[in-house]
Amino acid sequence: MKTMYQIKPTRQNLFSRNFLKITAVFLLILALVLTFNFSSSARSLVSNALSPLFKTGNFFYNNLNQVPKFFLDKNKLMAENQKLLDELENNRLDAIDYESVKYDNQKLRKELGLKPAADFISAAVIAKPPQIPLDSLFLDRGAEDGINKGDLVLVSERILIGKIVEVSKNKSTVALNSLAGAVSYGLVARTGEPLEIKGIGGGNIEAKVPIDFDIVVGDKIIVGNSFNYLVAITGVVEEDRSSGAKNILMSLPANISKTNIVFIRPVINE
Predict the structure, then answer these.
(1) Predicted model pTM
(2) Phi then psi for 87, rounded to 5 degrees?
């Protein structure tokens, strides 16, 4: 036997919903009317109620207006900083250039202070070992400046380092006294004893004398003429009793690696 159940429809509270909607619309209309048509006190009441919303909106509006200005100011500041950095770098490079010129000027003044009192020709060294073969120098003066083959080359009034061996129109080559195979004759400045000296390369000069020859380390060797040019300084003295001789090792009296200016003296004035 089947049992039948009747489903009762659920009554919806339509009245309560409609009442809330009507009340909300009424209040909104009332607020508008009070704002625009009633006394200033009524409008003030509504404005005060809504002022937090207005202030919040104004806050975001004003700050949003500042955002583009913030980024523009930041970019401008970055550009100014980069400009200052570039100026500092340029100033640093200028200072380096100034110090370099200052150093070269001081060095030139010092070297020119060594110039002999006589009428010598000054020349700049434009190449030296290892740029060119050992025991030679390349100068920026030549025949046009009055330089001739055989002229003496000095680094001061009394220090003789070599001779001119090749001359072109505006260039010349110096063979140092230490050039391998170069032979000259000099005197021991301390005793006046003569000896033959011979270049062996690399700034070195040698001599071979009898075992009883009076020469010691530090003795200066000069060219035997009225100018008494210094040409070598004794560094090593070795006795070879089996041969009855002394082997003498000498060096040039100047540091060629630091020589940048030389003075040429014509041989005709000897």
Answers:
(1) 0.57
(2) -65, -40
Pairing of strands 245-251, 230-240: antiparallel
Tokens standing for residue 82: 């980069």
CB 135 within 8 A of CB 250: no
Q: What is the DSSP letter of 268?
A: G
- The number of domains in the chain is 2
Q: pLDDT per residue over 110-125, tens digit each?
A: 555 555 656 788 999 9
* Calpha distance 136→126 (Å, rounded): 11
- 207-247 per-position pLDDT tens digit: 999 999 999 999 999 986 667 899 999 999 999 989 899 99
Q: Which residues in the chain show pLDDT less than 50?
A: 1-2, 5, 7, 12, 14, 36, 38-39, 42, 46, 50, 53, 269-270
By residue range, what is the domain housing residue 38?
Answer: 16-112
Taking CA atoms, 32 is separated from 26, 43, 47, in Å, by 10, 9, 11
- Cβ neighbours of residue 228 under 8 Å, at least 6 residues apart? 158, 189, 222
| 2, part of any domain | no
58 and 156 within one domain: no
Distance CA 268, CA 152 (A): 10
- Radius of gyration for the chain, computed over Cα atoms and rounded to the nearest angstrom: 51
- Among the three residues 93, 112, 131, which one is the final residue of a domain in this structure? 112
Q: Are residues 193 and 83 both part of a single domain?
A: no
**112, 143, 177: which is the final residue of a domain?**
112
